[in-house]
Amino acid sequence: MEGQPNAEAIDAAEFVGQPNDLDSYWMPFTANRQFKAKPRLLVGAKDMHYTSADGRSILDGTAGLWCVNAGHGRTPIVEAVHKQVARMDYAPGFQMGHPAQFELASRVAAMMPGDLEHVFFTNSGSEAVDTALKIAIAYQRAIGQGTRYRLIGRERGYHGVGFGGMAVGGIGPNRKQFGVTMPGVDHLPHTHDPARNAFTRGQPEHGAELADRLEGLVALHDPSTIAAVIVEPVAGSTGVLLPPKGYLERLRAICDKHGILLIFDEVITGYGRLGSSFAAEHFDVQPDMITMAKGITNGTVPMGAVGVSDKIFDAFMNGPEQAIELFHGYTYSGHPLACAAGLATLDIYRDEGLFERAASLSGYWEDAVHSLKDTAPHIIDIRNMGLVAGIELEPIAGKPTARAYDAFVRCFESGLLIRTTADIVALSPPLIVEKTHIDEMVDRLGTVLKQVA
Ligand SMILES: Cc1ncc(COP(=O)(O)O)c(C=O)c1O
Q1: Domain extents for the chain?
Q2: Ligand 1, atom 14: closest residue by C-alpha
Q3: Domain 7-70+353-451 annotated CATH 3.90.1150.10
Q4: pLDDT of 252 above 60
Q5: Are 403 and 452 a contacting pair, CB within 8 Å?
Q6: Of 129, 264, 419, which is best to mutate to test ligand 1, by the most ligand atoms within 8 angstroms of its C-beta?
Q7: Strand 57-60 and strand 49-52: pairing?
Q8: 110-143: pLDDT as tens digits
Protein backbone atom coordinates (compact mmCIF):
# COMPACT_ATOMS: atom_id res chain seq x y z
CA MET A 1 0.00 0.00 0.00
CA GLU A 2 1.31 3.42 -0.91
CA GLY A 3 2.94 5.27 1.96
CA GLN A 4 3.13 2.11 4.07
CA PRO A 5 6.60 0.66 4.22
CA ASN A 6 6.52 -3.04 3.41
CA ALA A 7 8.33 -5.64 5.47
CA GLU A 8 11.29 -5.64 3.12
CA ALA A 9 11.64 -1.90 3.36
CA ILE A 10 11.54 -2.07 7.14
CA ASP A 11 14.23 -4.76 7.04
CA ALA A 12 16.29 -2.61 4.73
CA ALA A 13 15.86 0.42 6.98
CA GLU A 14 16.98 -1.60 9.99
CA PHE A 15 19.89 -3.12 8.14
CA VAL A 16 22.97 -1.30 9.29
CA GLY A 17 25.29 -2.79 6.74
CA GLN A 18 26.89 0.46 5.72
CA PRO A 19 27.17 2.96 8.58
CA ASN A 20 28.12 6.37 7.22
CA ASP A 21 30.10 7.40 10.29
CA LEU A 22 32.65 5.11 11.85
CA ASP A 23 34.31 7.88 13.78
CA SER A 24 31.99 8.53 16.71
CA TYR A 25 32.03 5.08 18.24
CA TRP A 26 35.11 4.44 20.39
CA MET A 27 35.37 0.66 20.19
CA PRO A 28 36.39 -1.37 23.27
CA PHE A 29 39.58 -3.49 23.30
CA THR A 30 39.98 -2.71 19.59
CA ALA A 31 42.65 -1.14 17.40
CA ASN A 32 40.15 1.54 16.33
CA ARG A 33 42.09 3.03 13.42
CA GLN A 34 43.06 -0.35 12.02
CA PHE A 35 39.47 -1.63 12.31
CA LYS A 36 37.88 1.44 10.77
CA ALA A 37 40.23 1.28 7.79
CA LYS A 38 38.78 -2.18 7.03
CA PRO A 39 35.72 -2.86 9.20
CA ARG A 40 34.36 -6.30 10.04
CA LEU A 41 30.65 -5.84 10.68
CA LEU A 42 28.17 -8.51 11.75
CA VAL A 43 24.50 -7.99 11.04
CA GLY A 44 22.75 -11.29 11.81
CA ALA A 45 23.14 -14.49 13.82
CA LYS A 46 21.39 -17.86 13.95
CA ASP A 47 22.46 -21.05 15.72
CA MET A 48 26.16 -21.63 14.86
CA HIS A 49 26.57 -18.80 12.35
CA TYR A 50 26.85 -15.06 12.03
CA THR A 51 26.02 -13.14 8.88
CA SER A 52 28.52 -10.46 7.90
CA ALA A 53 27.52 -7.11 6.41
CA ASP A 54 28.64 -8.35 2.99
CA GLY A 55 26.22 -11.27 3.31
CA ARG A 56 28.66 -14.07 4.17
CA SER A 57 27.97 -16.85 6.65
CA ILE A 58 30.60 -16.94 9.43
CA LEU A 59 30.95 -20.06 11.59
CA ASP A 60 31.09 -18.95 15.22
CA GLY A 61 34.14 -20.57 16.81
CA THR A 62 33.98 -18.39 19.92
CA ALA A 63 30.32 -18.33 21.05
CA GLY A 64 30.41 -14.59 20.38
CA LEU A 65 32.73 -13.59 23.17
CA TRP A 66 32.54 -16.82 25.20
CA CYS A 67 28.89 -16.17 25.97
CA VAL A 68 26.42 -17.57 23.42
CA ASN A 69 26.59 -21.11 24.80
CA ALA A 70 23.14 -22.17 23.54
CA GLY A 71 23.76 -20.83 20.02
CA HIS A 72 22.36 -17.72 18.39
CA GLY A 73 18.82 -16.45 17.96
CA ARG A 74 17.19 -19.09 20.14
CA THR A 75 13.44 -18.65 19.81
CA PRO A 76 12.45 -19.29 23.47
CA ILE A 77 14.89 -16.62 24.65
CA VAL A 78 13.75 -14.14 22.00
CA GLU A 79 10.11 -14.74 22.93
CA ALA A 80 10.73 -14.53 26.67
CA VAL A 81 12.46 -11.17 26.27
CA HIS A 82 9.70 -9.90 23.94
CA LYS A 83 7.02 -10.90 26.41
CA GLN A 84 8.82 -9.41 29.37
CA VAL A 85 9.49 -6.05 27.73
CA ALA A 86 5.81 -5.78 26.81
CA ARG A 87 4.62 -6.81 30.30
CA MET A 88 7.04 -4.77 32.41
CA ASP A 89 10.08 -3.03 31.00
CA TYR A 90 11.79 -2.08 34.22
CA ALA A 91 11.30 -2.36 37.96
CA PRO A 92 13.40 -0.58 40.59
CA GLY A 93 15.67 -3.00 42.38
CA PHE A 94 16.26 -1.17 45.66
CA GLN A 95 13.65 -1.87 48.34
CA MET A 96 11.49 -3.34 45.52
CA GLY A 97 11.55 -6.56 43.57
CA HIS A 98 9.86 -8.56 40.82
CA PRO A 99 9.20 -12.30 40.68
CA ALA A 100 11.67 -13.23 37.94
CA GLN A 101 14.64 -12.03 40.04
CA PHE A 102 13.79 -14.44 42.80
CA GLU A 103 13.08 -17.28 40.42
CA LEU A 104 16.33 -16.83 38.51
CA ALA A 105 18.35 -16.52 41.73
CA SER A 106 16.96 -19.78 43.06
CA ARG A 107 17.54 -21.54 39.73
CA VAL A 108 21.17 -20.34 39.71
CA ALA A 109 21.59 -21.32 43.38
CA ALA A 110 20.34 -24.82 42.58
CA MET A 111 23.00 -25.15 39.88
CA MET A 112 25.90 -24.04 42.07
CA PRO A 113 27.82 -26.59 44.13
CA GLY A 114 27.86 -26.94 47.93
CA ASP A 115 26.53 -24.16 50.11
CA LEU A 116 26.56 -21.47 47.42
CA GLU A 117 22.90 -20.67 47.95
CA HIS A 118 22.65 -16.91 47.38
CA VAL A 119 22.91 -14.74 44.30
CA PHE A 120 23.65 -11.02 43.89
CA PHE A 121 22.88 -9.69 40.40
CA THR A 122 25.07 -7.30 38.42
CA ASN A 123 25.17 -6.34 34.73
CA SER A 124 28.54 -7.68 33.65
CA GLY A 125 31.47 -9.83 34.66
CA SER A 126 33.46 -6.78 35.69
CA GLU A 127 30.71 -5.70 38.06
CA ALA A 128 30.40 -9.24 39.39
CA VAL A 129 34.09 -9.25 40.23
CA ASP A 130 34.07 -5.86 41.92
CA THR A 131 30.95 -6.92 43.83
CA ALA A 132 32.61 -10.14 45.03
CA LEU A 133 35.74 -8.28 46.14
CA LYS A 134 33.62 -5.78 48.08
CA ILE A 135 31.58 -8.57 49.66
CA ALA A 136 34.81 -10.34 50.67
CA ILE A 137 36.15 -7.29 52.49
CA ALA A 138 32.76 -6.46 54.03
CA TYR A 139 32.39 -10.08 55.18
CA GLN A 140 35.72 -10.01 56.97
CA ARG A 141 34.63 -6.83 58.74
CA ALA A 142 31.26 -8.37 59.57
CA ILE A 143 32.95 -11.26 61.38
CA GLY A 144 35.34 -9.00 63.28
CA GLN A 145 38.32 -9.44 60.94
CA GLY A 146 38.45 -5.83 59.79
CA THR A 147 42.23 -5.90 59.31
CA ARG A 148 41.74 -8.20 56.35
CA TYR A 149 41.62 -5.89 53.33
CA ARG A 150 44.21 -7.37 51.00
CA LEU A 151 43.17 -9.12 47.79
CA ILE A 152 45.31 -11.65 45.97
CA GLY A 153 44.96 -12.24 42.23
CA ARG A 154 47.23 -14.00 39.78
CA GLU A 155 49.58 -13.03 36.97
CA ARG A 156 47.84 -13.23 33.59
CA GLY A 157 44.45 -13.32 35.31
CA TYR A 158 41.55 -11.41 33.75
CA HIS A 159 38.84 -10.14 36.04
CA GLY A 160 37.30 -7.40 33.94
CA VAL A 161 37.99 -3.71 33.79
CA GLY A 162 36.65 -2.13 36.98
CA PHE A 163 39.28 -0.77 39.34
CA GLY A 164 38.99 -3.83 41.58
CA GLY A 165 39.09 -6.35 38.75
CA MET A 166 41.93 -4.49 37.07
CA ALA A 167 43.93 -4.47 40.30
CA VAL A 168 43.64 -8.21 40.93
CA GLY A 169 44.01 -8.90 37.20
CA GLY A 170 47.43 -9.76 35.90
CA ILE A 171 47.52 -8.86 32.21
CA GLY A 172 50.09 -6.07 31.89
CA PRO A 173 48.54 -4.02 29.06
CA ASN A 174 45.20 -3.90 30.91
CA ARG A 175 46.87 -2.13 33.85
CA LYS A 176 49.76 -0.04 32.68
CA GLN A 177 47.77 2.81 31.09
CA PHE A 178 45.99 3.56 34.33
CA GLY A 179 48.65 4.40 36.87
CA VAL A 180 48.28 3.06 40.38
CA THR A 181 45.49 0.56 40.81
CA MET A 182 43.91 -0.36 44.14
CA PRO A 183 46.36 -0.59 47.01
CA GLY A 184 46.69 -3.77 49.07
CA VAL A 185 46.77 -6.18 46.15
CA ASP A 186 49.33 -8.89 45.39
CA HIS A 187 49.58 -11.65 42.81
CA LEU A 188 50.33 -15.35 42.62
CA PRO A 189 52.42 -16.58 39.70
CA HIS A 190 50.53 -17.87 36.67
CA THR A 191 50.53 -21.59 35.95
CA HIS A 192 51.61 -21.59 32.30
CA ASP A 193 54.68 -23.82 31.93
CA PRO A 194 55.09 -24.90 28.31
CA ALA A 195 58.58 -26.28 29.01
CA ARG A 196 56.98 -29.03 31.11
CA ASN A 197 53.37 -29.11 29.94
CA ALA A 198 53.23 -28.29 26.21
CA PHE A 199 50.62 -30.23 24.21
CA THR A 200 48.99 -31.66 27.32
CA ARG A 201 45.46 -32.95 26.80
CA GLY A 202 43.32 -31.73 29.69
CA GLN A 203 44.87 -30.81 33.04
CA PRO A 204 48.68 -30.46 33.02
CA GLU A 205 50.72 -32.77 35.26
CA HIS A 206 53.17 -30.15 36.46
CA GLY A 207 52.70 -27.06 38.57
CA ALA A 208 50.55 -27.86 41.62
CA GLU A 209 53.39 -26.51 43.76
CA LEU A 210 52.77 -23.02 42.32
CA ALA A 211 49.79 -22.82 44.70
CA ASP A 212 52.27 -22.93 47.58
CA ARG A 213 53.40 -19.45 46.60
CA LEU A 214 50.30 -18.32 48.44
CA GLU A 215 52.05 -19.39 51.64
CA GLY A 216 54.84 -16.99 50.69
CA LEU A 217 52.38 -14.11 50.27
CA VAL A 218 50.74 -15.02 53.57
CA ALA A 219 54.13 -14.96 55.29
CA LEU A 220 54.98 -11.63 53.63
CA HIS A 221 51.75 -9.78 54.40
CA ASP A 222 50.52 -11.75 57.43
CA PRO A 223 47.25 -13.68 57.12
CA SER A 224 45.46 -11.13 59.30
CA THR A 225 45.64 -8.67 56.38
CA ILE A 226 44.33 -10.92 53.57
CA ALA A 227 40.62 -11.00 52.76
CA ALA A 228 40.41 -13.13 49.63
CA VAL A 229 42.13 -14.86 46.73
CA ILE A 230 40.50 -14.65 43.30
CA VAL A 231 41.41 -16.89 40.36
CA GLU A 232 39.84 -18.10 37.14
CA PRO A 233 39.74 -21.89 37.48
CA VAL A 234 40.72 -21.96 33.79
CA ALA A 235 42.20 -18.62 32.75
CA GLY A 236 40.35 -17.74 29.53
CA SER A 237 41.10 -14.28 28.20
CA THR A 238 44.86 -14.62 28.64
CA GLY A 239 44.83 -17.57 26.24
CA VAL A 240 43.33 -20.64 27.92
CA LEU A 241 45.62 -21.64 30.80
CA LEU A 242 44.55 -24.80 32.60
CA PRO A 243 45.09 -25.46 36.30
CA PRO A 244 47.74 -28.14 36.92
CA LYS A 245 46.49 -31.27 38.64
CA GLY A 246 46.10 -30.60 42.36
CA TYR A 247 46.65 -26.85 42.07
CA LEU A 248 43.14 -25.63 42.89
CA GLU A 249 42.86 -28.13 45.74
CA ARG A 250 46.04 -26.74 47.28
CA LEU A 251 44.84 -23.15 46.93
CA ARG A 252 41.64 -24.14 48.73
CA ALA A 253 43.57 -25.81 51.56
CA ILE A 254 45.90 -22.85 52.09
CA CYS A 255 42.97 -20.39 52.08
CA ASP A 256 41.18 -22.54 54.68
CA LYS A 257 44.26 -22.73 56.86
CA HIS A 258 44.52 -18.93 57.01
CA GLY A 259 40.90 -17.80 57.04
CA ILE A 260 41.11 -16.42 53.48
CA LEU A 261 38.09 -16.53 51.15
CA LEU A 262 38.50 -18.21 47.78
CA ILE A 263 36.65 -16.68 44.83
CA PHE A 264 36.39 -18.50 41.51
CA ASP A 265 35.86 -16.14 38.60
CA GLU A 266 33.70 -18.30 36.35
CA VAL A 267 32.60 -15.66 33.87
CA ILE A 268 33.94 -17.93 31.12
CA THR A 269 33.94 -21.37 32.77
CA GLY A 270 30.37 -21.11 34.09
CA TYR A 271 27.38 -22.48 32.19
CA GLY A 272 28.77 -25.52 30.50
CA ARG A 273 32.05 -24.53 28.91
CA LEU A 274 33.86 -27.39 30.66
CA GLY A 275 30.92 -29.80 30.42
CA SER A 276 29.50 -28.99 33.86
CA SER A 277 27.48 -26.13 35.32
CA PHE A 278 30.57 -24.58 36.87
CA ALA A 279 34.28 -25.36 36.96
CA ALA A 280 33.99 -25.71 40.75
CA GLU A 281 31.92 -28.82 40.12
CA HIS A 282 34.20 -30.03 37.33
CA PHE A 283 37.33 -29.82 39.52
CA ASP A 284 35.44 -30.71 42.70
CA VAL A 285 36.85 -27.72 44.56
CA GLN A 286 34.44 -25.59 46.55
CA PRO A 287 34.95 -21.81 46.45
CA ASP A 288 33.32 -19.31 48.83
CA MET A 289 32.02 -17.21 45.95
CA ILE A 290 31.60 -17.65 42.20
CA THR A 291 31.46 -14.71 39.80
CA MET A 292 29.57 -15.32 36.57
CA ALA A 293 28.11 -13.46 33.54
CA LYS A 294 28.09 -14.20 29.79
CA GLY A 295 26.37 -17.62 29.54
CA ILE A 296 23.84 -16.77 32.25
CA THR A 297 21.69 -15.06 29.59
CA ASN A 298 23.33 -16.66 26.56
CA GLY A 299 24.77 -13.22 25.88
CA THR A 300 21.38 -11.82 24.86
CA VAL A 301 20.87 -9.26 27.65
CA PRO A 302 23.79 -8.06 29.77
CA MET A 303 23.86 -9.72 33.18
CA GLY A 304 26.38 -10.83 35.76
CA ALA A 305 26.03 -12.36 39.19
CA VAL A 306 27.90 -13.39 42.30
CA GLY A 307 27.12 -16.73 43.91
CA VAL A 308 27.66 -16.46 47.66
CA SER A 309 27.94 -19.14 50.34
CA ASP A 310 25.55 -19.47 53.28
CA LYS A 311 28.40 -18.62 55.63
CA ILE A 312 29.05 -15.27 53.96
CA PHE A 313 25.40 -14.36 53.42
CA ASP A 314 24.45 -15.22 57.01
CA ALA A 315 27.22 -13.00 58.38
CA PHE A 316 25.36 -10.00 56.91
CA MET A 317 21.84 -11.04 57.93
CA ASN A 318 21.88 -9.73 61.47
CA GLY A 319 21.50 -6.36 63.14
CA PRO A 320 18.23 -4.42 63.06
CA GLU A 321 15.80 -5.68 60.40
CA GLN A 322 15.24 -2.24 58.93
CA ALA A 323 18.98 -1.84 58.25
CA ILE A 324 20.29 -2.31 54.72
CA GLU A 325 22.80 -5.14 55.05
CA LEU A 326 25.02 -4.34 52.05
CA PHE A 327 25.44 -0.82 50.71
CA HIS A 328 25.97 -1.95 47.16
CA GLY A 329 23.88 -2.52 44.03
CA TYR A 330 23.15 -1.32 40.51
CA THR A 331 20.13 0.41 38.97
CA TYR A 332 19.88 -2.57 36.67
CA SER A 333 20.63 -5.38 39.17
CA GLY A 334 18.20 -8.17 38.27
CA HIS A 335 16.77 -6.24 35.30
CA PRO A 336 13.48 -7.81 34.15
CA LEU A 337 14.73 -8.41 30.59
CA ALA A 338 17.94 -10.03 31.80
CA CYS A 339 15.99 -12.25 34.20
CA ALA A 340 13.58 -13.29 31.44
CA ALA A 341 16.51 -14.09 29.16
CA GLY A 342 18.28 -15.93 31.99
CA LEU A 343 15.30 -18.13 32.82
CA ALA A 344 14.72 -19.05 29.17
CA THR A 345 18.45 -19.74 28.77
CA LEU A 346 18.61 -22.06 31.77
CA ASP A 347 15.58 -23.92 30.41
CA ILE A 348 17.40 -24.52 27.13
CA TYR A 349 20.58 -25.70 28.87
CA ARG A 350 18.50 -28.14 30.94
CA ASP A 351 16.03 -29.32 28.29
CA GLU A 352 18.67 -29.85 25.62
CA GLY A 353 21.24 -31.26 28.04
CA LEU A 354 23.82 -28.87 26.64
CA PHE A 355 26.36 -29.22 29.47
CA GLU A 356 26.28 -33.01 29.10
CA ARG A 357 26.56 -32.49 25.35
CA ALA A 358 29.71 -30.42 25.85
CA ALA A 359 31.15 -33.16 28.07
CA SER A 360 30.36 -35.88 25.56
CA LEU A 361 31.87 -33.92 22.64
CA SER A 362 35.03 -32.99 24.54
CA GLY A 363 36.97 -36.09 23.42
CA TYR A 364 36.20 -35.41 19.76
CA TRP A 365 37.08 -31.76 20.30
CA GLU A 366 40.38 -32.69 21.95
CA ASP A 367 41.42 -35.01 19.12
CA ALA A 368 40.41 -32.46 16.51
CA VAL A 369 42.32 -29.50 17.95
CA HIS A 370 45.40 -31.59 18.76
CA SER A 371 45.48 -32.88 15.17
CA LEU A 372 46.65 -29.38 14.20
CA LYS A 373 50.04 -30.13 15.76
CA ASP A 374 50.90 -32.41 12.84
CA THR A 375 49.03 -30.64 10.09
CA ALA A 376 49.66 -26.91 10.62
CA PRO A 377 52.81 -24.82 11.06
CA HIS A 378 53.80 -22.24 13.74
CA ILE A 379 52.15 -24.06 16.67
CA ILE A 380 54.15 -24.28 19.91
CA ASP A 381 51.39 -25.52 22.24
CA ILE A 382 47.83 -26.80 22.18
CA ARG A 383 45.70 -27.10 25.31
CA ASN A 384 42.07 -28.06 25.79
CA MET A 385 39.29 -28.94 28.18
CA GLY A 386 35.54 -29.32 27.72
CA LEU A 387 34.72 -27.24 24.64
CA VAL A 388 37.57 -24.78 24.90
CA ALA A 389 41.01 -24.81 23.33
CA GLY A 390 44.08 -22.60 23.23
CA ILE A 391 46.44 -22.88 20.27
CA GLU A 392 49.63 -20.99 20.89
CA LEU A 393 51.60 -19.75 17.89
CA GLU A 394 55.25 -18.89 17.77
CA PRO A 395 55.42 -15.08 17.57
CA ILE A 396 57.13 -13.55 14.54
CA ALA A 397 60.50 -12.26 15.78
CA GLY A 398 60.16 -8.59 16.70
CA LYS A 399 56.44 -8.54 15.84
CA PRO A 400 54.49 -10.10 18.71
CA THR A 401 50.74 -10.57 18.02
CA ALA A 402 51.14 -10.03 14.25
CA ARG A 403 50.90 -13.69 13.29
CA ALA A 404 47.77 -14.37 15.35
CA TYR A 405 46.10 -11.18 14.15
CA ASP A 406 46.82 -12.15 10.56
CA ALA A 407 45.27 -15.56 11.25
CA PHE A 408 42.21 -13.92 12.85
CA VAL A 409 41.58 -11.69 9.82
CA ARG A 410 42.16 -14.50 7.33
CA CYS A 411 39.84 -16.81 9.28
CA PHE A 412 37.13 -14.15 9.27
CA GLU A 413 37.57 -13.66 5.54
CA SER A 414 37.32 -17.40 5.00
CA GLY A 415 34.15 -17.68 7.12
CA LEU A 416 35.32 -18.57 10.65
CA LEU A 417 35.28 -16.42 13.78
CA ILE A 418 38.17 -17.15 16.13
CA ARG A 419 39.52 -15.11 19.03
CA THR A 420 43.16 -14.22 19.51
CA THR A 421 45.05 -12.82 22.43
CA ALA A 422 48.72 -12.05 21.96
CA ASP A 423 49.80 -14.97 19.72
CA ILE A 424 47.28 -17.44 21.10
CA VAL A 425 44.17 -18.56 19.24
CA ALA A 426 41.24 -19.37 21.54
CA LEU A 427 38.34 -21.50 20.37
CA SER A 428 35.14 -21.88 22.41
CA PRO A 429 32.16 -22.70 20.18
CA PRO A 430 28.52 -22.68 21.23
CA LEU A 431 27.67 -25.95 22.99
CA ILE A 432 25.26 -26.85 20.17
CA VAL A 433 28.28 -27.35 17.89
CA GLU A 434 28.16 -30.44 15.66
CA LYS A 435 31.15 -32.64 14.83
CA THR A 436 31.02 -31.35 11.26
CA HIS A 437 31.42 -27.79 12.58
CA ILE A 438 34.41 -28.89 14.66
CA ASP A 439 35.99 -30.45 11.56
CA GLU A 440 35.31 -27.27 9.62
CA MET A 441 36.87 -25.06 12.30
CA VAL A 442 40.03 -27.14 12.50
CA ASP A 443 40.26 -27.41 8.74
CA ARG A 444 39.84 -23.69 8.13
CA LEU A 445 42.25 -22.72 10.89
CA GLY A 446 44.82 -25.24 9.63
CA THR A 447 44.53 -23.85 6.10
CA VAL A 448 44.91 -20.29 7.34
CA LEU A 449 47.97 -21.16 9.45
CA LYS A 450 49.63 -22.44 6.26
CA GLN A 451 48.97 -19.03 4.65
CA VAL A 452 50.12 -16.67 7.41
CA ALA A 453 53.65 -15.30 7.53
C1 LIG B 1 37.08 -14.37 33.93
C2 LIG B 1 36.46 -13.07 33.53
N3 LIG B 1 36.11 -12.20 34.49
C4 LIG B 1 35.53 -11.02 34.19
C5 LIG B 1 35.28 -10.67 32.88
C6 LIG B 1 34.66 -9.36 32.58
O7 LIG B 1 33.38 -9.52 32.10
P8 LIG B 1 32.63 -8.30 31.35
O9 LIG B 1 33.34 -8.09 30.07
O10 LIG B 1 31.22 -8.79 31.20
O11 LIG B 1 32.71 -7.12 32.26
C12 LIG B 1 35.62 -11.55 31.86
C13 LIG B 1 35.36 -11.20 30.45
O14 LIG B 1 35.78 -11.87 29.54
C15 LIG B 1 36.23 -12.78 32.18
O16 LIG B 1 36.62 -13.64 31.24
Answers
A1: 7-70+353-451, 78-351
A2: 237
A3: yes
A4: yes
A5: yes
A6: 129
A7: antiparallel
A8: 999 999 999 999 999 999 999 999 999 999 999 9
